[in-house]
Predict the 3D structure of the following.
Amino acid sequence: MDNSPLQVLTVPTAPYPDQRPGTSGLRKRVFVFQSRRNYLHNFIQSIFSSIDLRDRQGSTVVVGGDGRFFNQTAIEVIVQMAAANGVGRLIIGHHGIMSTPAISCVIRKYKAIGGIILTASHNPGGPDGDFGIKFNTANGGPAKEAVTNKIFQISRTIEEFAICPGLRVDLLTLGKQTFDLENKFKPFTVEIVDSVESYANMLRNIFDFAALKELLSGENHIKIRIDAMHGAVGPYVKRILCEELGCPANSAINCVPVEDFGGQHPDPNLTYAADLVDSMKDGQYDFGAAFDGDGDRNMILGKHGFFVTPSDSVAVIADNIFCIPYFQHTGVRGFARSMPTSAALDRVAKATKIELYETPTGWKFFGNLMDAGRLSLCGEESFGTGGDHIREKDGLWAVLAWLSILATRRQSVEDILKDHWLKYGRNYFTRYDYENVDIDAACEMMEDLELMIADKAFVKQRFAVEDKIYQVEKADNFEYTDPVDSTISRNQGLRIIFSDGSRIIYRLSGTGSDGATVRIYIDSYEKEQIFEDTQVMLAPLATIALKISQLHHRTGRSGPSVIT
């Protein structure tokens, strides 16, 4: 066996103009990474070059992914480039798989300078699907815009990358592997870790596992159905919910990570988790949940498939927050939601006199508030919920939060939600997604829409649908000034706010790999009519939203791809 030090090479390359990280990193079709020479290498080098050499030298970086196609190929390249770029130690999940919440946990636990997450979240996988790379910084959260801008600028001018092509790592064996590199004083270390254990240990310190075990496997236990959608969270569900908390093994389905997520779209909503919804309808299960590819998003269902909107979910957790022991110890510093999320959380914040922050979409905005000690619980309408235990949304945490509420209150999911509406009123909320729309048509529509709502004459305008009349009170392009560091984030979504508090919001999403996704959000508050059908209640506002934007005409679409 050759024990000579491994060679470090500097390889010339040419830049690509399209490596700007979006809200959740760089996402492209798999074939883009496979077919464009050094496309992956360029972006990884841009990440490493964005970190000051003094900080990088001898540092620890965490690496893991959701197990999608191209995951292992990318990890091999990242290992070879990390070694060549002076990183001292890599911590990698067993088989290269680690959920996004677990990566955030491990970054914080090992005081790493950051982590590289290989995921396209809820986007499809497989050779014809999507692949993504996201960089999280030392706080365990997504890199802020200043960092992602720096990565992008480097990617536009990159001329070479450093790599150690002879380095081969074994992802199947737990433990440390060391490698000697030429011109390096200390060996390079790769540590393959049980990615579930650190995360499970963190959850044991947040929740009352004895109470949860009683709820799930005690004398009067409830029956649950959990769908991991063949994503990274499957092993976590098996270990924590089944092995530790006593759920029968058949409570958890699709728990083996698969490169193409079993040919499914790993997105926990009523459209893509339809199998779970159908299995809940006959009433044999009291509680259901689904997760996305990398385990940070969640969907909550009650008996007979009763759907809890993500906006209501975070509001209910906020109202019952002391059912979770962690918050009994830490207290509650603040609540936050993304701007498109319904204002249900605002009502709880007002009643409990707890500060409420309204931020742009993107978990990094919550992380900044958490790092400053201002925020304890937050959520997004896009099926993301989390606390300040890490700096990412956390699907399994949200499920254990709900189960903690069920264990304390001993009511059904539906009864808990109906009680909440009786107490606070109800924010009816829906989102229409128009996916893979022509980018030029979408941008043109948004530009024209912004011009229209910016006109002073637009405010006070009235829109009548059937017997309802809505008067515009305010219209703008949402802008956020961070209360911690005063950074300003502009152009975060077009808002039309009516005099009764109802809102219509238009956004172009930054999480797709192909075409544009136009999103319309509709939020309307009712104090009295709280048990009606959401789509019926919001139909007048939906009509107005389409009329104002002329979306169907402008995009050539007759209807949305997904309604949530």
